[in-house]
Amino acid sequence: MSTERAIRDSIDDAAETVGSVWPVHSFVTANPLSGFEDKPFAEAVTEAADILGGRGYPSPETFRKALEREQIDRDTLDAELAAAGYDADPEALLSRMDTAVETDEQDHDAIEDRVDHVLTKWLSSFLDEGRAHWSLPDRDLGFYGVFRTFAAHDSQIPDTGIVADLPTTPTETVKTVLDPYPTEQWPAIFEEQLTALPGWTGFIKQRADDGGQWQSRYPITLTGYLAARLALLDALDADLTPAEDPDGDTHEVDQLSEAFLTAWESTYREELVGSITAESESLAEREPSGRPDAQLVFCIDTRSEVLRRHLEDAGDYETHGYAGFFGIPMEYRGYDAEVSVTACPPIATAQHRITDEPVDAETETEYDYLTGIREAAAEIVESIETNAATAYGFVESAGSGYGLALASRTLVPGRVHDFLDSVGDTVPDEHDFCRPSLDDLTLGEKVGYAETAFDLMGWDHFARLVVFTGHASQTANNPFDSSLDCGACAGNPGGPSARVLAAICNEDAVQAELRERGFDIPDDTVFLAGQHNTTTDEVDLYDGGVPESHQADLKRLRADLETAREGATSERTASAGDAARETERKAADWAETRPEWGLAGNAGFVVGPSELAAGLDLDGRAFLHSYDWTTDPDGDALAAIMTAPMVVTQWINNQYYFSTVDTAVYGSGSKITHNPVGNVGVYQGNGGDLMTGLPLQSLMAADDEPYHQPLRLSTVIHAPVDTVTDILADNGDVAQLLDNGWLSLTVVDPTQDHTAFHYAGELSWTPVTGDGAVVDSGASPATGDD
Questions:
Q1: Euclidean distance between CA atoms 353 and 351, whole angstroms
Q2: I want to staple 35 with a disulfide (CB 3.0 to 4.6 A). Which of 17, 64, 411, 456 is the partner?
Q3: How far does Cα 147 stand from its chain's mean position?
């Protein structure tokens, strides 16, 4: 292997400890400690704290409040503390944690601060994605090429050391700067320098891995970035000798925190498992239900659980959960969009290019005319906002009219919502005159995606109306708006994915092949798409292709969706007044820091028949994926769920967890001091590292009081435990996540008298009582012969 290749490989290895960061306009949820998932959780958070500086557990005050609110069962906590070797009163231990002296804080080196300041300026200019009006020149040379060409013109960069004559390639620069240091120190130096700005490093890492149009036009690599960083350090005569490794001993505070956290999680899990076990027993005694009025497939997103529950109360409806990209790994480009977006989770690879194609010329012309006016106005406003001289002139001439518009946005956002709604009604929606082009899919692929969806959900019957319902959020003045959209669609709305699957399922050739494969689709079944607005709980049905014969069904569904909305918004807002109106206000209020809570509160993932959760109030805290073990004799569908949606929900859960326990390091701090940069992310203040996670306002009821309960994910699967064991045996990566404590797993086995078994590690299980508590600390195989 060449020296150049060895350096690049070593840099890539060192970057493994830094999680990937996606652009804020396409916010993809990810575990910020993904590079540590091969280690036990307790070990990982300690090591990450040493490298990244973040706290790994909730604060003692958070545990104290959870204990006071009886979110932590005291008997369970006593058992966990005793197992960790502590017999003192929990309150006394929390006080001890409060007064523990932290000795690992270090002052940041002044030279590194200076380098960080210079680099973030260069990175924000180079990585800009169309936001800057004056772009950095010659970006097609790549980051290192631009730095090499123009560094001499930056007065903040000393013309000394290697900067005075930068080598042609970044690997030459790395080798030259590190030549005085023993080669065995190089990996540690790489890691130390790459983790100095983990937000920018994570963004570069993701962009280089993903490719895409910006990377193709203006390439940047970890090696090029690191070369520039090392050159700056060399110019400032910095000592690059890596810091000594920490001793690795777990602090007492971490030991106690792990015990408190585990007890908190066990308390939640026992209640969840107890409810699922009782429903499993009840389900076995129920008579099969008749054909429902409609079937609606929602994303597994926790926000769907609330609306689903209220819709099932409103009428004879069957609701299901399925990953919100509806199994279509695609890049999607809207009718008048400038670029396509990836509309599938990072665990999948976009295989198809889907575009919206007009099918109604008259409506298309009307759309073009009205949107042209709207876009022209938007361009004027943007130019005013970004040009100080014209801004003053505009406000001077517009006078009270402009002030009135600002005041309306601030004082009567509900009225603004009404106005925007009325304006929006005059502009046709794209789905009114466009259809997704399916030319990029073969018939076999179309049938495969439909079959996979029905297999994973365990379908054996079909209603007259089947609605695939994507979701999106509605918010104003929010750089993190995509974090509230569909995570399964890479931070994009899920409506387009729903439209693609509905279009596939409506094709005669697809239905014919599905019938051949055992899916008895009636001739009167019509598939359509919709989109759930998670801020207001409105559901927009894309019903242009629904025949007259189904209009009565559609009318009834619309009415019941409105009833469900009223119930869901009342529950979510706890409002004594018009809850739906309150959600509309939040959606239009540009000063609203919490338009909605997103997936805050998520703690569980339930995999089982839709009827299993239909009678349960899971408080909007559980992801719900439909699955029927009786239609999956080989366990293939369950394996697909455990290796994809379960892993992705663990990422989401970990992002919320770490963003909550340390918002400054793993989250994004407060929105109040956010400064959007380059359409790729946000700073805190006027510069520095890219913030990587969720903002404080998405997680906290107050600055020091979490709204999100920071718990690791508790997964409950309704299936034979033997099947789950076999799946884990065949998928070591998933088993490793469980063995290392990144999430937990309990199986409610309908073939063993609905007994629940909790995963105990190493492919072994412990039985659980009817109320969800583990009854035996010793592990057992839990096979069907027990």
A1: 7
A2: 17
A3: 34
Contacts of range 327-332, beta carbons closer than 8 Å, 24 or more positions apart? 327/449, 327/452, 327/453, 327/456, 327/501, 328/352, 328/354, 328/449, 328/497, 328/500, 328/501, 330/354, 330/497, 330/500, 332/436, 332/492, 332/496, 332/497, 332/500
Q: Above 90 in pLDDT, residue 644?
A: yes
Considering just the CA atoms, what is the radius of gyration of the chain in Å? Answer: 27
Cα–Cα nearest to 331, from 339, 320, 318, 340: 340
| Residue pointed to by tokens 């005050």 | 61
Strands (E), 2-116: none
pLDDT at 244: 76
* Main-chain dihedrals φ then ψ at residue 382, nearest 5 degrees: -65, -40
**pLDDT tens track for 66-84:** 999 999 999 999 999 999 9
Q: What is the pLDDT of residues 267-293, one digit of tens each?
A: 999 999 999 999 999 988 888 778 999
- In the 8-state DSSP scheme, what is residue 486? B
Alpha-carbon distance of 673 to 692, in angstroms, equals: 15
What value, to the nearest 5°, has the Cα angle with vertex 448 and ends 468 and 484?
35
Using an 8 Å Cβ cutoff, are 496 and 469 in contact? no
What pTM value is reported for the model? Answer: 0.92
Q: By three-state DSSP, how is residue 88 classified?
A: coil
- Decide the pairing of beta strands 674-677 and 434-436: unpaired
Q: Residue 242 and residue 178: Cα distance in Å, rounded?
A: 12
**What is the DSSP secondary structure assignment for residue 338, as one 8-state letter?**
S
Higher confidence at residue 423 or residue 452?
A: 452
Rounded Cα–Cα distance for residues 327 and 644 (Å): 11
State how far the Cα of 566 lies from the Cα of 536, in Å rounded to an integer.
Answer: 9
Alpha helix positions (H), 530-575: 551-573
User: Per residue in 655-689, pLDDT tens?
Assistant: 999 999 999 999 999 988 899 998 899 998 888 99
Burial-class residue 103 by CB neighbours within 10 Å (0-12, 13-18, 19+).
Answer: exposed
What is the C-alpha to C-alpha distance for residues 251 and 171, in angstroms, rounded to an integer?
39
What is the Cα–Cα distance from 574 to 529, expressed in whole angstroms?
A: 30
- Can you tell me the mean pLDDT for 367-371? 65
Of 143-152, 247-256, 637-646, minimum mean pLDDT range: 247-256
Going by C-alpha positions, the residue among 670, 672, 668 that lies closest to residue 681 is 668
Q: How many helices (H) and strands (E) does the chain have?
A: 29, 19
546-570 per-position pLDDT tens digit: 999 999 999 999 999 999 999 999 9
Q: How far apart are CA 329 and CA 354, in angstroms?
A: 10
Q: Would you state the pLDDT for residue 155?
A: 94
The pLDDT tens digits of the residues spanning 613-629 come to 887 999 999 999 999 99
Kindly tell me if the per-residue pLDDT of 577 is higher than 90: no
Task: Give residue limits of the domains in the chain.
Answer: 3-29+107-235, 58-97+252-287+599-663+699-786, 291-359+435-596, 367-426
Which tokens in the block code for residue 745? 């797993």
Find the mean pLDDT for residues 382-396.
50
What is residue 634's three-state secondary structure? coil
In the numeric block, which tokens belong to residue 687? 């510069």
> In sequence order, which residues have a C-beta less than 8 Å from that of residue 344 and are 6 or more positions away?
325, 328, 329, 330, 350, 488, 489, 490
Tell me the two tokens of residue 440: 């990029």
Mean pLDDT of the chain: 89
Q: How many CB atoms lie within 10 A of CB 692?
A: 28
Bridge partners (DSSP) of residue 608 are 626
Contacts 24+ apart (CB under 8 A), 212-221: 213/339, 214/127, 214/129, 217/139, 217/140, 218/126, 218/127, 218/139, 218/140, 218/142, 218/143, 219/142, 219/143, 220/126, 220/127, 220/142, 220/143, 221/8, 221/142, 221/143, 221/144, 221/170
For residues 504-517, average pLDDT: 98
